[in-house]
Amino acid sequence: MHDPHEPSGNEPPADVPATMGLGRLAATVERLRREVREAHAAADGRALIELAKGILVERLGCNPAEAARQLAGLAEKAGLSPLELAADIVNQAARDRMTQAAGEFLSAATGDGDAEKLSVAVRLRTAESGALAAADTQAVAESLLEHALVPLGAHAVAVWAAGMDASLTLAGSAGFGEEEARRWRYVPPGVATPARQALLERRAVWWTDLSRTGLPSVGHRRDAAEGRVALPAGTGGRVLGVLEIAWPHPVPPQPPQVERQVEALAELAAHTLETGSRPVAYEPGSELVDLADGLHDSALVLRPHLDADGRLADFRIHHVNGEFVDFAGRPRGMVMGTLLLESYPMSAGEGGLYEKVERVYATGEPFRAERMTLTALVDEVPLSVVASVSISRVGEDVLLVWRVMDEAARLANLLQHAQRLGRVGAFEENAVTGGVVWSEQMYTLHGLPATEPPIPLQRLPRHAHPDDGVALGRFLRTLLHHRRPASTAFRLQRPDGVARHIRVVAEPVLDSDGTLLAVRGAFQDVSAQHWTEVALAATRDQLAHSEQQASERNRLALQLQNAIMPPTRGPFEAFNLKIAVRYRPAEEEHSVGGDWYDALVLPSKQVLLSVGDVAGHGIEAATGMVVLRNALRGLATTGAGPAQLLTWLNLVAHQLTEQITATAVCALFDPETGVMRWARAGHLPPIQIRSGTPTELPMISGMMLGVLAEVEYEEGAHRLEQGDVLLMYTDGLIERRDRSLQHSQQHLLRVAGEPGPTLEERLDHLLTHSRSDTDDDTCLIGIEYR
């Protein structure tokens, strides 16, 4: 019987109730979230309807209840929902950018364009209602995403607040994870991001695929293809922040209607940032005026001046400090209270002062310039000065500071820059009081802060390398005792442990009686010059050693080559063949190459004829030539044909050497039949002269040696007739830098056809009239069949 206390096997596992409980809990949470979202959407919609009712109350002069009945009745007659009609009423009353965005859809739509226009209007006005009712910027971002951006296919939005230093703070976001939003809470100034680009350029910037730009941003993975747009959000000429919208996929160029929509949303974000970022107890200019009055340079506090439409038109000079000096010569009273373009109309040019002020006010990024030309009109005559300029935004105002550089200031500034670039520091030491004055660069050379006292000349040896004490003592005696100009070089030991090579030049200042009053001079850091000279000396030694090694290698290569192939070799006969050889070495010893020739009677009574050319020059080419020439000799004793011999020789070049490459022609002449079998490995074919007419033997295929491990070579056969002459040569005979190889071959055929009394004289004639200009070595074999 079944024990009632044991599981029956049909009952669910023990963990099923827990799993079912978690599923019900998750479903409940999701339902509550959906209800919250629906409640928020309904609240936003009610806010839009209430706004429309308020407009009807004002226009019809009725009470709210009558306005509600009028709204419901008009919606029923128009066949619209109350929410759609409310959006249309608000658009007609507002005539703002959101109205323009919805109107553009109406003009561009066909068929059901009215429905599309109303849909856009409802989305934008609902987003506006939610933003205006939101408690913070985070809620604004969520309303923008839910009501206006999700229908456009976007999946995330970020609202950035711009700081006075062009930094960015993430004021609100939606669609990004909480951890990602925390990680991007603050972006310091100078970091390149899409939002910073829109801030500095002050225009909407679209990216079809942000991953192609390499710009980092919130929620963006470098390997993810996604579209982005960043728009400056500002009012009255000032960019308060940036609205950044993200799509989960690449976004093609959008129509103007969509661009107007996102611009309207950026304007809404600007309103949110403006109302949420202003300090509670802020009075423009109060602290800034005190700051300007404490400066020793000319300072102006500028306040934005807006036109009737709320756009930036100019800047009013709210305050000028007591140190203010107008470079046009006007008193402070004539400048204070005027507009910037009224007092300085010449600053309105491109790249001028006004444009810099406007940019700083818009973006918050400060501007600094060591030298800037400022121009003013004096009796209709432009007057220009050069000044150092500093512009900063402080709250709602702009602080403009300038320092006009007179001739003395210009020369002092020029001298300071020259000392910095030349790593030169100046000093003056009073011989009566012992006081020492250093220029700014002297502290830098000595590695000392400007608060440290300067080092007198008498204590200079304590800060120098001990080995330089004698030179410094001679310098001081000449300068202080003999009172003559002096100079020396020494190694300065700085407190930070860095040793610098310094050259000091000084001269005494004497009165009319010859009494020493002071010593003036300069220190120059010549460390770079010193180490350059050391490096050059080492390089010269290394170069001399390398040249000696190269000369020795070339000498050995030349000796090796001459030992194997002497420049001339008298004619010799083999059966019914007369063979003559000529070898012309390279004109320069360093150009010793790897050309070779060979003529040998084999044990099979056949005659081996070959020429070849190893790529390169020097000892490597010469030794490679020896390897291939001797290998071919040994392989030829096997009785194999020319094609097989080149196949084996290719293996030698590719595997048994340092992978040298070469070209070659190999031929075997059978004296009994008069037939010459031959093969080529990337080499020029032999030339036959028959009855005074030169022609090349028919071309056969064959790759140069050493390129591939396995190569098959084609073999050709040619029967010689009595009186025929064959010429085998390397390319050093015909190569030119200004002619093609085909052109040089044609010239060689013409010269070869000229008659010669003997075979040797024919070869000498070819070498003499060769037009080659590459100074390469040359091998030439002549075979005459009798």
From TrEMBL:
Q: Does the keyword Lipoprotein apply?
A: no
Which UniProt keywords are given for this protein, alphabetically ordered?
Hydrolase, Transcription, Transcription regulation
Superkingdom of the organism of origin: Bacteria
Q: Which Pfam families match?
A: ANTAR (PF03861), GAF_2 (PF13185), PAS_3 (PF08447), SpoIIE (PF07228)
Gene Ontology molecular function terms on file: phosphatase activity; RNA binding
- Read off the Gene3D superfamilies from this record: 2.10.70.100, 3.30.450.40, PAS domain, PPM-type phosphatase domain, Winged helix-like DNA-binding domain superfamily/Winged helix DNA-binding domain
Domain PAC, first and last residues per copy = 486-538
Q: Which InterPro entries match?
A: ANTAR, Bact_Sigma-Reg, GAF, GAF-like_dom_sf, PAC, PAS, PAS-assoc_C, PAS-like_dom_sf
Q: Which residues form the ANTAR domain?
A: 29-90
Q: Would you tell me the protein name for this molecule?
A: Serine phosphatase RsbU (Regulator of sigma subunit)
Which classification does the entry list for the species? Bacteria, Bacillati, Actinomycetota, Actinomycetes, Streptosporangiales
